[in-house]
Amino acid sequence: MKAAQLMGPGLLEINDVPIPEIGPSELLIRVGAAGICHSDLHLLHFPYKMREEPLTIGHEIAGTVEAVGSGVDGRSVGERGVVYLCWSCGQCRECMSGNENMCLAAGRTAMPPCPGLGPEGGMAEYVKIPARSFVPIGDLDFLQAAPLADAALTSYHAIRGARDHLQPGTTAVVIGIGGLGHVAVQILRAISAVRIIAVDVGQDQLDLAKRCGADITLESGPDTARQILDLTSARGAEVVFDFVGVDATAQMSVESVAPNGAYRMVGLGGGNPGITAEAAGGPGWPWGASVRKSYGGTRNDLVDSIALARAGLVTVEVARFELADARDALDRLEHGKVTGRAVLVP
């Protein structure tokens, strides 16, 4: 089969590899589509070789069950689904309470094994997965379904974690209308009655935010936090979701969140929000506000995201690429030439 494999720092190749052999508790999935995430770019540019053997990347996977392990019940050949990306132990107290993304077996890093980030990923014609990670999608199109595995899952989890702040008439800010941000706008519109302010640097992204349901769009710049304060009677937004995570957006989040509000770090840009332990006032961190660094989501978050998509409430803006063009798709994403989510089709 063909697979997009990381060979070393900056080197991605399409290789011929054997179709995986599954164990008793696994499924073999014939991949229908695989989304591309900014974390795939982080892997591509990681300065050291991650392992000696090539790594098939890709953690947003949708496809069809091709084979079922001998010890698996409840799954059948031909079922269509997506792959839940947190391959947790399923037995610890976090997993048993539904917080699979915080599995105790992952230690303080709290990042359970994930396809394409250790185990072989889904930018290939086939992938083997733990049977418990398979989530059915019915007749949902694979191009729409694959990005739900991260772009919707991660967005939904961050939003659900701030849901107490999303009361009718409040304001939510979404910074970065990319693969995750444009989905987040739709989720907010579907499950809440908040006013949505979308922030980005490009007009194409701001137009996409409008189509997705944003009430107000702002071009990101030095005065954006002040604009948000002006739109909220100088108090700030009840929730700020940062899907970029660089210095400028992290500091914008701190300067625009309301007292008792919520700031959710989602983007992995390495930014420093500049939060200090000092008296509140001025542009700094306000009294009572909370900050949370959000990773992935739970299996239930994915189930709920799929339900929203099947109901027509979430539609991913997709840029389709063939598997053979994986490197070109990654390059286009890196240079800001992808609107929405890039998705590979084997």
Explain what this protein looks like in three dimensions:
The protein contains ten helices and 16 strands. The chain is an alpha/beta fold and 346 residues long. The chain has two domains: 2-149 and 296-345, Medium-chain alcohol dehydrogenases, catalytic domain (Quinone Oxidoreductase, Chain A, domain 1), CATH 3.90.180.10; 162-293, NAD(P)-binding Rossmann-like Domain (Rossmann fold, 3-Layer(aba) Sandwich). Strands 3, 5, 6, 7, 8, 15 and 16 form a seven-stranded mixed sheet that branches. Strands 11-10-9-12-13-14 form a six-stranded parallel sheet, sandwiched between helices. Strand 12, helix 8 (247-256) and strand 13 form a beta-alpha-beta unit. The longest helix is centred in the last third of the chain and has 12 residues, at 299-310.
